[in-house]
Design brief:
Chain A: InterPro entries: MetI-like (IPR000515), MetI-like_sf (IPR035906). The complex is a heterodimer. By secondary structure, chain A is an all-alpha fold. Chain A is 81% helix and 0% strand. In chain A, helix 3 runs antiparallel to helix 8, helix 5 crosses helix 6 and helix 8 runs antiparallel to helix 10. The relative contact order of chain A is 0.14. Classes of the chains: A mainly alpha, B alpha/beta.
Chain lengths: 254, 255
């Protein structure tokens, strides 16, 4: 019963929406009824799916890059406090600078002809920090008693990292990854909005284009697909997290 | 009697000499000028009120804590690599199976883990009654079982010297007694230094009992209860001695 509640609410919402639009004769360029959005989804499917694919690819690339660089940098930081002290502030600066403000710069530097690369860089900047900060926290949270045990057993630095620190940090890293996955999508979309040119043809461009042409049903269809992408990424990452943490720390899968 | 794996012709476990040990903690001297001998192949129990520095002393002997003083073995060999450690928590890796946890030391030493290792680990798990749990992960085990697994891992190391820091303090009373029996049986012949806050535990397991108390802390003369370990709980005199020890501990704590 509980599992049925969310779809039920959604269905009710869509029905109300459809009814209100029809009964009050709301013009389609203000608010298209769900039926029109569904029709647009069906008719524009080839175009929209191609754009979804582009956005998905950029998002996944940015996410993986963020994962590798985030965990990698956190590991480096743990090996050298001086390095951490030297670089961490810049990671924070990168994180707190609004992506919208630097996006035009990055797009100009990389060039409009390689706008997908610019989008990747921007999405990476957004997605990178949660992985870095969570991994850093995770690597620091190793049980000091276990550290002692490894020391007594004569474990090398590498063994401590590989057999103790990284496995201990895994729940943290995965929690960071889950945040980062959503942010990568947001980063990719925001960057494309700012790039604002037809050379990038992801979902965000479809939203801009449809808005400019007052093709509201297609705009809503593109938005729907963006939500679906976001939910998909979240679901996949949650699934991976559950799977990997099933035997981990008691109650650590949350 | 369960077969206890290990090398039967192992050289006798050395006595451990602690000379002039001093540990500072947060700018305060915890204790200084501490001397102690833990006789070879015997179990020495260290009792004392909490915060007196008994765990610190153990960590100093293990080389986990920097302090001053000389820690040496009476056979002249260095202690490094001859120690096994068992702590208050089981310290099992939650992501590894019980079997993998038991052979952790071998893996860390880069030994090729073969059938011989596995057989020995399984025999030890059998000795602690966990044979059928070898492929479980620690979170599937009760606290007592995990501590038994930790004991198996400590024994797997097969070191002549075993340091134990309140190894059974997190267990309920009955499980604790069972573990004490098991440990006494399986640790026979090794030099054991066990920190505990439980006088009964010290009296059951210790060939020698030393109390660390007072301010500044000093070690009492060794108390040597009669009879073989593990001494039964209903042994006459045990309760009397427990009472005396408790009294001593409380006085030490107040002073």
């Amino acid at each position: 019963m509980r599992r049925l509640l969310p779809p039920l609410v959604g269905l009710l919402f869509l029905l109300t929406w459809e009814l209100v639009v029809r009964l009050r004769d709301v013009p389609v360029f203000v608010l298209p009824p769900p039926s029109a959005v569904a029709t647009a989804l069906w008719n524009d499917a080839p175009l929209l799916l191609q754009s979804s694919w582009i956005t998905l690819i950029i998002t996944v690339q940015a996410f993986l890059l963020a994962l590798i660089t985030g965990v990698g940098l956190a590991v480096l930081f743990k090996q050298s406090r001086a390095l951490e002290a030297a670089l961490y502030p810049y990671a924070v600066i990168l994180q707190v600078t609004p992506i919208v403000a630097i996006a035009p710069l990055v797009v100009i530097w990389v060039g409009y002809e390689r706008v997908n690369l610019a989008l990747l860089i921007l999405a990476w900047i957004v997605a990178f920090f949660p992985v870095l900060s969570n991994s850093t926290a995770g690597l620091s949270a190793v049980d000091p008693n276990l550290r002692d045990l490894f020391r007594l057993y004569g474990a090398s630095r590498w063994q401590v990292l590989w057999r103790l620190a990284l496995p201990s940090a895994l729940p943290y890293i995965l929690a960071g990854a889950r945040i980062s996955g959503g942010l990568a999508l947001i980063g990719a979309v925001v960057a494309e909005f700012v790039a604002g040119s037809g050379t990038a043809t992801g979902l965000a461009w479809r939203v801009i284009e449809a808005g400019n042409r007052l093709n509201m049903p297609r705009l809503f269809a593109a938005l729907t697909l963006l939500s679906v992408l976001g939910i998909l990424i979240f679901a996949v990452l949650t699934g991976i997290q559950r799977r990997l943490l099933r035997h981990w720390h008691p109650g650590g899968a949350g | 009697m369960t077969y206890v794996p290990g090398s039967p012709v192992a050289p006798p476990a050395p006595a451990i000499h602690v000379t002039g040990a001093a540990i500072g903690f947060g700018g305060r001297l915890l204790f200084s000028g501490l001397n102690m001998v833990a006789p070879g192949g015997r179990t020495t129990c260290l009792l004392g009120p909490s915060g007196v520095g008994k765990s610190s002393l153990l960590r100093l002997i293990a080389g986990l804590l920097s302090g001053s003083g000389r820690i040496s073995a009476d056979d002249g060999q260095p202690l490094t690599g001859r120690l096994a450690w068992m702590g208050q928590q089981d310290l099992l890796l939650p992501w590894a199976t019980i079997l993998d946890n038991v052979i952790l030391g071998s893996k860390l030493r880069g030994e090729k883990v073969g059938l011989a290792h596995r057989d020995r680990a399984m025999a030890l798990l059998d000795a602690v009654g966990l044979m059928d749990r070898a492929t479980c992960r620690p979170d599937a085990l009760s606290g007592g079982m995990r501590q038994r697994a930790a004991l198996a891992r400590t024994l797997f190391e097969d070191r002549p010297v075993v340091l134990m820091d309140e190894p059974f303090s997190a267990l309920d009373a009955i499980t604790r007694l069972d573990m004490q029996d098991l440990a006494a049986r399986l640790l026979t012949g090794r030099t054991v230094i066990m920190v505990t806050h439980d006088p009964l535990e010290a009296l059951r397991l210790g060939h020698e009992i030393r109390v660390l108390s007072g301010s500044p802390p000093h070690l009492s003369a060794p108390l040597t209860p009669d009879g073989e370990t593990p001494r039964p709980t209903d042994q006459p005199g045990l309760l009397v001695q427990q009472g005396k020890l408790l009294h001593h501990l409380r006085q030490g704590g107040v002073a």
